Amino acid sequence: MDPNVTETAVTYPHLRVSGSAFERGVSYGKQARERVERSIEGYAQVLLAGAGLEWSGVRELAKRFEDPIGAFGSVYLDELRGIAEGAGVDLLDILAINVRTEIMYSAKARDAAALRMAECTSYALVPAPGESSPVIIGQNWDWLVHCFETVVVLESERLDGPNFVSVVEAGLLAKLGMNSAGLGLVTNALVTDADLGDPGVPFHVLLRAILDCETVSEALATLQRSPRSSSANFLVAHEDGSALDIEAAPGDYSRLFLVDPTGPYLHTNHFLSDRFDGRDVSLWAMPDSPVRFGRVRAASKEDAPLDAQRMMTLMADHAGFPDSVCCHPNPHHAPTEQGATVASVVMEPGTRTMWMADGQPCSRSFRRIDYAEFLSPSPR
């Protein structure tokens, strides 16, 4: 399947790492040193302006997560230590940017007006049993404008699990991506009044752990395994047609809520499951979320079926501008709170193909990246 898209001249750096968890981290940190430094600088500015936190205080808050991460999976702590060594920074700086969600959204849970930021629109197109159309999964990743200077495409060749590709901020373990087991992952931030930053397994560690999984059921089990620190939506789909949209609130396995799709899997930044029984702060913090959700849901009800090409077009939608599906900086927000679509990604796990707009899809062409060889299935 080729949507006949062209390659843009401006691309985010691609990093390829291999070896043990620590070795991969060291290589990642070395290759992305300047962008890791920019990530640290960016979040120091954001958290000072938005939450009144000096970086020394952020580091102290981050240190509380070291033990929960190590208990959940020592390999993830090894990767973080490797990134710090490779980038020539302290482990606490790397921990801090990897728990930025827990720190930032605890401020939102206490006072949603304190931080207003752009967020994401995600989707998965899964054929009904017996149909031959491919599984498509993707999202517009909307986040802070300093991320135009920090995003990388991380290609991880593993000795201890499936290879994976993740589009991620430099220094963070993972974000959206897919792996050699045929699993694709996209995500959305959510906020409840229980997002108080209590130590647990952080959001970005969970994203990284899902990219270790070989099935959708294993991804759900991973989210159930240990108490989580923050809310989020995890949308996972496999090349075999299985998929789950899992809304998570802070806490244990009992605080996971499955979304029943009435068509394509679609999600923005508020809770959709009718089983959710908490207090959703998301709409207060991200009031554009239902507008974006309405736009993608309206498109799903049209006669023409959704496919990769239509999703690329839809991700450039400007209804509700500037806080639209294709997000642009809002001049009414403080500079450290302004957001934009920093990348738009479409993935076809079955062919290990990724289409990526390196920035806003209204102005950046999607480029096709063939990962068929790198993400070829591991022999069983």
Folded structure, characterized:
By secondary structure, this protein is an alpha+beta fold. It has a domain at 116-370: Penicillin V Acylase, Chain A, CATH 3.60.60. It is 31% helix and 22% strand. The chain has twelve helices and 14 strands. Strand 6 and strand 7 form a beta hairpin. It is globular. The model is unreliable at 1-9 (pLDDT under 50).
Topology:
Blueprint: E1 14-19, H1 21-31, H2 33-51, H3 55-63, H4 66-72, H5 74-87, H6 91-98, H7 100-110, E2 121-125, E3 136-144, E4 151-158, E5 164-169, E6 176-179, E7 183-189, H8 203-210, H9 216-224, E8 232-238, E9 243-248, E10 256-258, E11 265-267, H10 282-285, H11 289-300, H12 308-314, E12 339-348, E13 353-357, E14 367-370
Parallel strand pairs: 1-4
Antiparallel strand pairs: 2-3, 2-11, 3-12, 4-5, 5-6, 6-7, 7-8, 8-9, 9-10, 12-13, 13-14
In short:
This protein has 380 residues and is an alpha+beta fold. 31% of the residues lie in helices and 22% in strands.
Number of strands: 14
Number of separate helices: 12
Terminal CA distance reads 27 Å
What would you call the structural class?
alpha+beta
Cα Rg: 19 Å
CATH architecture of the domain at 116-370: 4-Layer Sandwich
Averaged pLDDT, please?
93
Give helix and strand order, one letter per element, not per position: EHHHHHHHEEEEEEHHEEEEHHHEEE
Order of neighbouring strands in the sheet with most strands? 1-4-5-6-7-8-9-10
- Outline the low-pLDDT stretches: 1-9
Tell me, briefly, the overall form.
globular
Largest sheet properties: 8 strands, mixed
Tell me the β content.
15-25%
CATH class of the domain at 116-370: Alpha Beta
Provide the CATH superfamily of the domain at 116-370.
Answer: Penicillin V Acylase, Chain A
What percent of residues adopt helix (DSSP H or I)? 25-40%
Question: Could you please say which CATH topology of the domain at 116-370 applies here?
Answer: Penicillin V Acylase, Chain A
